[in-house]
Amino acid sequence: MRRFAIIIGLLGAISLPAGLWLTAPTRISEDVFAALTGDAIAGETVFHAAGCAACHAAPGAEGEARLILSGGQRFVTDFGTFLAPNVSPHPTAGIGAWTMQDFANATQRGVSPDGAHYYPVFPYAAYTLADPQDIADLWAYWQSLPPSDAASASHDLGFPFAIRRGLGLWKALYMPNAFSPAIEGDSEVLRGQYLVQALGHCAECHTPRDALGGLDRDRWLAGAPNPSGKGTIPALTPDRMTWSAQEIAAYLTDGFTPDYDSTGGSMVEVIANTAQLAETDRAAIAAYLKALPSPKSAQP
């Protein structure tokens, strides 16, 4: 028994440092953003494309109130309930004391200024593919938004999901380093790919997930269960989405389907964002969706 206890102790002593190393947060090199200057006008486009207000505005906010990123929205998942924090430029209640480097590490690595992992309900696994200049522009625009002193509420999570350190392993499994699935196309299609994957993070809702919450890229945009538990999120692949590119672009402008039905649910927020984009960007999103390959398996 004593020998067994010693062996267990040695394995623990070896595995603990290895586990800490594997789950440690990784940050972006400061050289990446050191020479960049943000453009607030360009950052406004990034803000709408990335859907920031859809999650961080107060519940029910409309019009200009959507620019007050006071948080408070609840996101119920199989892992627990997440509450969007205040990310307004308020110096204490929000993120007004952050640097651009802090902002980049949060949005593209899911790491807080004090080195804690953020939960991937914050779609940094998509934003990690964004161009650094877009992140710098977004940060410049962020400074122009109104501050809010609303306090951020804590997430409601049970064991083991309340242990943030374990998210380092999740990131090792699921953080992409390139666009996938691979797709070929002209500049319009590639612009659409960037808007859908890196900024719009459409796959977060429209792609099925595995047991650990990672996206099933073999069924990219093939539809998924609704996170609220009611119904499904529709597929966007050409075999299921039969609208023309022009009809998709029009829908992203006014929220009306080709048969004149109006959008509802969470898509109301999405349309509020895409309606702010340039017409060429909405056309690019449509071109990308029409260029998608069919998924390897059907919608669940």
Q: Please report the total strand number as a whole number.
A: 5
Shape: globular
Name the poorly predicted regions: 1-16
SSE arrangement, N to C: HHHHEEHHHEHHHEEHHH
Number of domains: 2
Terminal Cα span: 50 Å
Strand order of the largest sheet: 1-2-3
Quaternary: single chain
The whole-number mean of residue pLDDT values reads 88
The fraction of residues in strands falls at under 5%
Count helical runs. Answer: 13
Q: Estimate the helix proportion, in percent.
A: 40-55%
User: How is the main sheet built?
Assistant: 3 strands, antiparallel
Radius of gyration: 20 Å
Structural class: mainly alpha
Entry keywords:
300 residues; mainly alpha; Cytochrome Bc1 Complex, Chain D, domain 2; three-stranded antiparallel beta sheet; two-stranded antiparallel sheet; 13 helices; 5 strands; disordered N terminus; heme binding; heme
Question: Topology, please?
Answer:
Blueprint: H1 2-22, H2 30-34, H3 40-50, H4 52-56, E1 74-77, E2 80-83, H5 100-109, H6 124-127, H7 132-142, E3 156-157, H8 167-174, H9 187-199, H10 203-206, E4 224-225, E5 232-233, H11 245-254, H12 267-274, H13 279-291
Antiparallel strand pairs: 1-2, 2-3, 4-5
Helix pairs in contact: 3-7, 5-7, 9-13, 11-12, 11-13
Can you summarize this structure?
The chain has helices at 2-22, 30-34, 40-50, 52-56, 100-109, 124-127, 132-142, 167-174, 187-199, 203-206, 245-254, 267-274, 279-291, and strands at residues 74-77, 80-83, 156-157, 224-225, 232-233. By secondary structure, it is mainly α.
Structure characterization notes:
With 300 residues, this protein is mainly α. It has two domains: 26-174; 187-291, Cytochrome Bc1 Complex, Chain D, domain 2 (Orthogonal Bundle), CATH 1.10.760. Helices cover 41% and strands 5% of the residues. The protein contains 13 helices and five strands. The protein has a three-stranded antiparallel sheet with strand order 1-2-3, with no helix packed on it. Mean pLDDT is 88; it is low at 1-16. Residues 38-146, 187-293 form the Cytochrome c domain. This is Cytochrome c, mono-and diheme variants.
